[in-house]
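Hey,

Quick one before I head out. I ran the complex with magnesium ion overnight. Inputs first:
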Amino acid sequence: MNNSNIINNKSFQDNDELSKNSGSESDQDPKVSQLNIEENKKLNIEILPENTDKEDLSFKVIIIGDSSVGKSSLANKAIKNKFESSYSATIGFDFFSFFVKINNKILKLQIWDTCGQEIYQSLITNFYRNCSLGIMVYAINNRDSYEHLDLWLKEIKRESNPDAKIFLIGNKCDLEKERVVTYEEANIYSEDMEFSKFFEASAKDGINAKEIFIEAARLLYEDYTEYKSEISSSVSEKTNPELKITLNKNEHKSTCC
Ligand code: GTP
Ligand code: MG
């Protein structure tokens, strides 16, 4: 087996395991600050520099959505604290790394920022595989980008791990006067389609840009810790016969791997 592990079909790399075995700048508008800050406070979370050269866990995250909705801008704002008002279309992919330390584990998000142009789509969907989390972006001032979400969702569900988490992001929320997609309708869509999270954001003003990736890291870390506890309970099941009897009585089944 190579160094990739599976959590409910999502892949991650645990370098610790390998070695053993071998703030938003926003105005706090409630509509744009739906991040579970309380949850994050319970964990000890620290953002590390982009050039961090160590990681314990590594996850592939893909950003998709129509051209010009601000996918690259969100990644640039979150990771490099930069925003360019001129438009330079991504050709193929851009790559970013986002490092977060959560409870002493260093997580690396390998972020694949894809181009939204249709001509590249057949090439790009091949790279959705093994992604742990997808970030689907539309722009609140671009109705077409919202109407196309069904297509993006279908693609990501078809090509990536069936259990990959998916976030929905309504970008450009600084352009309130040009808004053509309401927060409420997108929120209902997000609930209907069972997105893991829905936020509005602005790469321009830095609203929720960094928080998207912090929240992604937090959810992936939670999956990892759940996976670890499933593994240890299945080890106890094997090594502790009394526990095994109890588990069998309760018809407990480990879902690991
Ligand atoms: P492709 O690479 O072609 O798929 O586009 P993209 O989704 O990566 O869009 P990109 O980040 O290049 O941004 C497109 C344009 O929108 C640029 O001119 C950005 O400056 C602008 N833009 C991005 N985010 C925001 C935002 O939050 N607010 C405003 N007002 N403009 C934004
Ligand atoms: Mg781009």
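Residues 67-73, 84-87, 89-90, 115-117, 171-172, 174-175, 202-204 surround guanosine-5'-triphosphate (ligand 1) (CB under 6 Å).

Talk tomorrow,
K.
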